[in-house]
Backbone:
């Protein structure tokens, strides 16, 4: 994507949220991980502002508040992009998001990617994926402290990717389409606090943690093979193993544990685990073929934000 052009009155961009299938947290410390885009998006519109400063506003239905991390990310990105651009009037950034905040579904990353792209395009600046990701990662850092970059890379590229810090994201070719069940527990948490908590555990148990990091990489490579060959039972088993490692590093909670056990015991499901930072947030499950909709109907009585997602191919989109 190389866009350099005249300024327009409004530029709108959207980007998807994400789920992490294997390797969260360990990816911060160098392991491979697998992540996928989901069918929930954030849309950002950029226009000139009458005000003397950058304005970030959420549309009413998005239910955003001023100290919401997404405002922080969008404003930080705008300040960085506009830093050296003298003579440009302040901009207004409007955010509309289908992705609940603090849910582990990549809301701030989707907003960061969409904000970077919309603003670069609005200002007629040259942009490519690397440039968009560079600014999007700044937004994520403003909110999450030390993110690995997996959230923005997945949101930007779409599809399903293998990611590590040194090599970035590479696409995985699915042998057949796949559906995941996503259940937001309703417990909002702070990714930055959880990343710090895990870093403390790593310091206290360094050798054990390093072994778990290597095993998360191995498990993610096996998960990639399962996705490429369509071996869903194996993928489900790998997700269950990853779940155990996440409990050990202290990011599970009794409520999440209970939800996962309920899914695994009672539902037609091949695997289930926390997705993202944990400490609350969301759980994902891999339903047996044809049983996803029945699981949603049952679980949504207790968890209103439960949905099935395919893996959309499109990441960032200039609307
Ligand atoms: O955005 P969250 O809360 O789903 O967490 C992102 C995944 C982590 O591995 C915990 C952090 C990271 O940047 O990789």
Residues:
């Amino acid at each position: 994507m190389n866009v350099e052009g005249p300024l327009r009155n409004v530029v709108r961009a959207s980007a998807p949220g994400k789920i992490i299938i294997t390797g969260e947290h360990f990816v911060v410390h160098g392991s491979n991980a697998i992540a996928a885009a989901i069918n929930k998006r954030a849309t950002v519109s950029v226009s000139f502002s009458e005000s003397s400063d950058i304005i970030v506003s959420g549309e009413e239905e998005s239910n955003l508040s001023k100290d919401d991390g997404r405002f922080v990310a969008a404003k930080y990105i705008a300040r960085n992009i506009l830093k050296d651009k003298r003579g440009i009037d302040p901009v207004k950034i409007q955010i509309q998001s289908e992705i609940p905040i603090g849910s582990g579904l990549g809301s701030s990353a989707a907003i960061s990617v969409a904000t970077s792209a919309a603003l670069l395009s609005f200002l007629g600046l040259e942009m490519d994926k690397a440039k968009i990701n560079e600014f999007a990662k700044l937004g994520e850092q403003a909110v999450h402290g030390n993110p690995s970059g997996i959230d923005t890379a997945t949101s930007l590229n779409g599809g399903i990717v293998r990611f590590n810090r040194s090599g970035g994201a590479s696409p995985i070719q699915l042998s057949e389409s796949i559906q995941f069940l996503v259940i937001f527990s309703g417990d909002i948490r702070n990714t930055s606090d959880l990343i710090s908590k895990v870093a403390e555990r790593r310091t206290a148990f360094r050798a054990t943690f390093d072994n778990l990091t290597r095993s998360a990489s191995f498990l993610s490579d096996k998960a990639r093979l399962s996705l490429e060959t369509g071996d869903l039972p194996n993928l489900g088993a790998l997700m269950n193993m990853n779940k155990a490692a996440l409990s050990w590093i202290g990011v599970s909670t009794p409520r999440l544990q209970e939800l996962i056990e309920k899914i695994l015991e009672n539902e037609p499901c091949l695997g289930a685990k926390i997705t993202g930072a944990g400490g609350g947030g969301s759980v994902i499950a891999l339903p047996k073929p044809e049983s996803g909709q029945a699981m949603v109907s049952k679980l949504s009585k207790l968890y209103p934000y439960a949905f099935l997602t395919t893996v959309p191919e499109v990441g960032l989109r200039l609307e």
Remarks:
- Confidence is low (pLDDT under 50) at residues 1-6.
